Amino acid sequence: MITPYWKLEDLWNMLSSVLLPILVLLSLNGVHVAGFLETPQSNVVAGDITYLQNQLNDEKAKRMLLENEIKMLKQEFSEMKASRATPVGFKARLSETLTVSQPNEKIVYKDVLANIGECYNKTNGVFQAKVNGTYLFSVVACSASSHFIALNIVRNGNVIGNVLAGDNALSDCGTEVTVTSMTVGDRVWVERQRGDVLYALYWNSFSGVMV
């Protein structure tokens, strides 16, 4: 038995005879051989770039969302800090007997004992908020003997509390305390609901404080 013996030169000649016609055919058909061989690698690189670009866009969107949340938190913190740094409180009372008869007539408390924050106007009897927050208001109403008086606490035209005082023989007092949320510019005042006389006692008062 004779063992085949292939010389390196013979193998090269055989491979050349097979590959050369294929390369010639590809060239004749307009195919760039080097580009043809590199195409799979190019596709992989392009895919990686697209993936990384998508990841980058996702990270940008997340960062924008976080920046918006941080901005909102900073604004809330600033408002909270401002409200805490600006104390608000007042108390005013009547110094003389007041007769009221008109529907929804405002009660003007001209004797101001305290006006921290300068939010109460003794000229028109209106408290106007300068800071957002929660406020507590109190009204004491005292009627003359044989008379009665009913008052409303009003916020921006809406009744948020009322107080009644009256007795057939004696002077009488009633008290109302209410809590409400207010934003800058909101107004609170006291007005007549029914009745006619507020007796000249210092107990007739209107007060408020931010809590």
Automatic annotation (TrEMBL):
Gene3D superfamilies assigned: 2.60.120.40
Any Gene Ontology CC annotation: extracellular region
Origin superkingdom: Eukaryota
Signal peptide: none
InterPro entries: C1q_dom (IPR001073), Cerebellin_Synaptic_Org (IPR050822), Tumour_necrosis_fac-like_dom (IPR008983)
Pfam families: C1q (PF00386)
UniProt entry keywords in alphabetical sequence: Coiled coil, Secreted, Signal
Span of domain C1q: 83-211
Coiled coil stretches, renumbered: 49-83
Keyword Transmembrane included in the entry's annotation: no
Localization per Swiss-Prot or TrEMBL: Secreted
PROSITE patterns in the record: C1Q
Protein name: C1q domain-containing protein
